[in-house]
Design brief:
Layout lengths: L4 E5 L7 H13 L22 H5 L5 H6 L6 H10 L3 E6 L6 H12 L8 E3 L10 E4 L2 H4 L5 E5 L14 E4 L2 H12 L7
Parallel strand pairs: 1-2, 1-4, 2-3, 4-5, 5-6
Length: about 190
Protein backbone atom coordinates (compact mmCIF):
# COMPACT_ATOMS: atom_id res chain seq x y z
CA UNK A 1 0.00 0.00 0.00
CA UNK A 2 1.37 3.40 -1.01
CA UNK A 3 1.86 5.94 1.77
CA UNK A 4 -0.12 9.09 0.99
CA UNK A 5 -0.15 12.73 1.94
CA UNK A 6 -3.72 13.41 3.01
CA UNK A 7 -5.06 16.95 3.36
CA UNK A 8 -8.11 17.29 5.59
CA UNK A 9 -10.24 20.38 6.10
CA UNK A 10 -11.34 21.26 9.60
CA UNK A 11 -14.76 22.98 9.74
CA UNK A 12 -17.64 20.67 8.85
CA UNK A 13 -15.21 17.97 7.80
CA UNK A 14 -13.53 16.76 11.00
CA UNK A 15 -15.81 18.78 13.29
CA UNK A 16 -19.33 20.08 13.09
CA UNK A 17 -19.09 23.87 13.28
CA UNK A 18 -22.26 24.58 11.30
CA UNK A 19 -24.55 22.93 13.88
CA UNK A 20 -23.17 24.95 16.78
CA UNK A 21 -23.06 28.17 14.74
CA UNK A 22 -26.71 27.88 13.66
CA UNK A 23 -27.82 27.00 17.20
CA UNK A 24 -25.87 29.99 18.58
CA UNK A 25 -27.47 32.41 16.10
CA UNK A 26 -30.95 30.99 16.77
CA UNK A 27 -30.55 31.32 20.54
CA UNK A 28 -29.03 34.79 20.37
CA UNK A 29 -31.55 36.25 17.90
CA UNK A 30 -34.71 34.26 18.62
CA UNK A 31 -34.75 32.50 15.25
CA UNK A 32 -35.57 28.95 14.17
CA UNK A 33 -33.21 28.24 11.25
CA UNK A 34 -32.34 24.58 10.77
CA UNK A 35 -28.95 23.32 9.64
CA UNK A 36 -30.58 21.89 6.50
CA UNK A 37 -31.82 25.42 5.66
CA UNK A 38 -28.20 26.41 4.97
CA UNK A 39 -28.07 25.75 1.22
CA UNK A 40 -25.14 28.01 0.35
CA UNK A 41 -21.56 28.56 1.46
CA UNK A 42 -22.67 32.10 2.32
CA UNK A 43 -24.36 31.58 5.70
CA UNK A 44 -25.95 35.04 5.58
CA UNK A 45 -28.42 33.69 2.98
CA UNK A 46 -29.95 31.42 5.63
CA UNK A 47 -30.26 34.36 8.05
CA UNK A 48 -31.66 37.23 5.91
CA UNK A 49 -32.92 39.08 8.98
CA UNK A 50 -29.37 39.43 10.32
CA UNK A 51 -26.51 41.59 9.12
CA UNK A 52 -23.32 39.85 7.93
CA UNK A 53 -21.61 41.14 11.07
CA UNK A 54 -24.23 39.47 13.27
CA UNK A 55 -23.91 36.19 11.37
CA UNK A 56 -20.10 36.01 11.61
CA UNK A 57 -19.74 37.47 15.11
CA UNK A 58 -20.03 34.11 16.95
CA UNK A 59 -16.78 32.91 15.37
CA UNK A 60 -14.92 35.37 17.62
CA UNK A 61 -16.21 33.80 20.86
CA UNK A 62 -14.23 31.09 22.64
CA UNK A 63 -17.53 29.74 23.94
CA UNK A 64 -18.66 28.78 20.44
CA UNK A 65 -15.47 26.84 19.72
CA UNK A 66 -15.70 25.11 23.09
CA UNK A 67 -19.09 23.70 21.97
CA UNK A 68 -17.88 22.37 18.60
CA UNK A 69 -17.59 18.57 18.57
CA UNK A 70 -15.87 16.19 16.18
CA UNK A 71 -17.74 14.46 13.37
CA UNK A 72 -18.61 10.83 14.13
CA UNK A 73 -15.60 8.54 13.55
CA UNK A 74 -13.30 11.41 12.47
CA UNK A 75 -11.01 10.95 15.47
CA UNK A 76 -10.65 7.20 14.99
CA UNK A 77 -10.22 7.32 11.22
CA UNK A 78 -7.58 10.07 11.28
CA UNK A 79 -5.69 8.17 13.95
CA UNK A 80 -5.96 4.98 11.87
CA UNK A 81 -4.67 6.81 8.76
CA UNK A 82 -1.64 7.91 10.78
CA UNK A 83 -1.14 4.37 12.08
CA UNK A 84 -1.34 3.13 8.48
CA UNK A 85 1.72 5.30 7.79
CA UNK A 86 0.08 8.16 5.92
CA UNK A 87 0.95 11.82 6.47
CA UNK A 88 -2.17 13.75 7.53
CA UNK A 89 -2.27 17.54 7.39
CA UNK A 90 -5.18 19.60 8.65
CA UNK A 91 -5.85 22.38 6.15
CA UNK A 92 -7.95 25.35 7.17
CA UNK A 93 -8.65 28.77 5.77
CA UNK A 94 -9.59 30.22 9.15
CA UNK A 95 -9.57 33.87 10.01
CA UNK A 96 -6.31 34.68 11.79
CA UNK A 97 -8.30 36.26 14.66
CA UNK A 98 -10.03 32.96 15.45
CA UNK A 99 -7.36 30.46 14.46
CA UNK A 100 -5.64 29.94 17.83
CA UNK A 101 -8.94 29.45 19.66
CA UNK A 102 -10.23 27.00 17.06
CA UNK A 103 -7.01 24.99 17.00
CA UNK A 104 -6.76 24.89 20.80
CA UNK A 105 -10.40 24.14 21.66
CA UNK A 106 -11.21 21.80 18.79
CA UNK A 107 -8.20 20.33 17.00
CA UNK A 108 -5.79 19.77 19.88
CA UNK A 109 -8.59 18.91 22.31
CA UNK A 110 -10.11 16.13 20.19
CA UNK A 111 -7.16 15.23 17.95
CA UNK A 112 -4.18 15.36 20.36
CA UNK A 113 -2.06 13.29 17.97
CA UNK A 114 -2.05 16.21 15.48
CA UNK A 115 0.54 18.93 16.11
CA UNK A 116 1.15 22.39 14.68
CA UNK A 117 3.66 20.74 12.33
CA UNK A 118 0.66 19.16 10.59
CA UNK A 119 -1.56 22.25 10.31
CA UNK A 120 -1.64 24.26 7.09
CA UNK A 121 -3.46 27.60 6.96
CA UNK A 122 -4.26 28.68 3.41
CA UNK A 123 -7.04 30.50 1.62
CA UNK A 124 -6.20 28.90 -1.75
CA UNK A 125 -5.97 25.23 -0.91
CA UNK A 126 -5.22 24.30 -4.52
CA UNK A 127 -1.67 25.57 -3.85
CA UNK A 128 -1.11 22.77 -1.32
CA UNK A 129 0.47 19.56 -2.57
CA UNK A 130 -0.93 16.22 -1.51
CA UNK A 131 -2.42 12.98 -2.78
CA UNK A 132 -5.94 13.37 -1.37
CA UNK A 133 -7.95 16.36 -0.11
CA UNK A 134 -11.09 15.96 2.00
CA UNK A 135 -13.15 19.15 2.25
CA UNK A 136 -16.78 20.31 2.45
CA UNK A 137 -16.07 23.40 0.33
CA UNK A 138 -16.21 22.60 -3.39
CA UNK A 139 -14.26 25.79 -4.11
CA UNK A 140 -11.36 24.33 -2.10
CA UNK A 141 -11.33 21.19 -4.23
CA UNK A 142 -11.92 22.58 -7.72
CA UNK A 143 -8.77 22.44 -9.86
CA UNK A 144 -6.76 20.84 -7.06
CA UNK A 145 -4.10 18.36 -8.15
CA UNK A 146 -5.16 15.60 -5.76
CA UNK A 147 -7.96 13.10 -5.41
CA UNK A 148 -10.88 15.24 -4.29
CA UNK A 149 -13.29 13.94 -1.67
CA UNK A 150 -16.23 16.26 -1.04
CA UNK A 151 -17.67 15.85 2.45
CA UNK A 152 -21.43 16.07 2.14
CA UNK A 153 -22.95 19.10 3.87
CA UNK A 154 -26.20 21.06 3.56
CA UNK A 155 -24.42 23.94 1.82
CA UNK A 156 -22.98 21.71 -0.95
CA UNK A 157 -25.88 19.32 -1.61
CA UNK A 158 -26.84 21.07 -4.85
CA UNK A 159 -23.26 20.96 -6.16
CA UNK A 160 -22.51 18.57 -9.05
CA UNK A 161 -19.35 16.92 -7.73
CA UNK A 162 -19.08 14.43 -10.60
CA UNK A 163 -18.90 17.24 -13.17
CA UNK A 164 -15.83 18.53 -11.31
CA UNK A 165 -14.04 15.19 -10.83
CA UNK A 166 -14.91 14.82 -7.16
CA UNK A 167 -16.28 11.96 -5.09
CA UNK A 168 -18.95 12.84 -2.56
CA UNK A 169 -18.50 11.13 0.81
CA UNK A 170 -21.08 11.02 3.58
CA UNK A 171 -19.09 9.86 6.58
CA UNK A 172 -15.62 9.02 7.82
CA UNK A 173 -15.97 5.30 7.07
CA UNK A 174 -16.48 6.18 3.40
CA UNK A 175 -13.50 8.54 3.56
CA UNK A 176 -11.28 5.79 4.96
CA UNK A 177 -12.37 3.34 2.26
CA UNK A 178 -11.79 5.91 -0.52
CA UNK A 179 -8.31 6.72 0.82
CA UNK A 180 -7.46 3.02 1.07
CA UNK A 181 -8.59 2.61 -2.55
CA UNK A 182 -6.20 5.38 -3.59
CA UNK A 183 -3.34 3.86 -1.56
CA UNK A 184 -3.96 0.45 -3.13
CA UNK A 185 -4.16 1.89 -6.64
CA UNK A 186 -7.88 1.10 -7.04
CA UNK A 187 -8.78 4.78 -7.44
CA UNK A 188 -6.66 6.73 -9.86
CA UNK A 189 -4.79 9.70 -8.55
CA UNK A 190 -4.84 13.02 -10.37
Amino acid sequence: MKKLTILVDMDDTIEYLLKEWVEWLNARHGLNVKVDDVRSWNLTEAFPELTPEQVYDPLYYHELWMRVKPMPDAQNVIKKLLEDGHEVYITTSSNYNTLATKITWVLFRYFPYISWDHVIVATKKQMIRGDVMVDDGPHNLEDGEYVRLLMNAPHNRDYDEKAHGMTRVFNWEEIYKAICDVAEGKKEQI
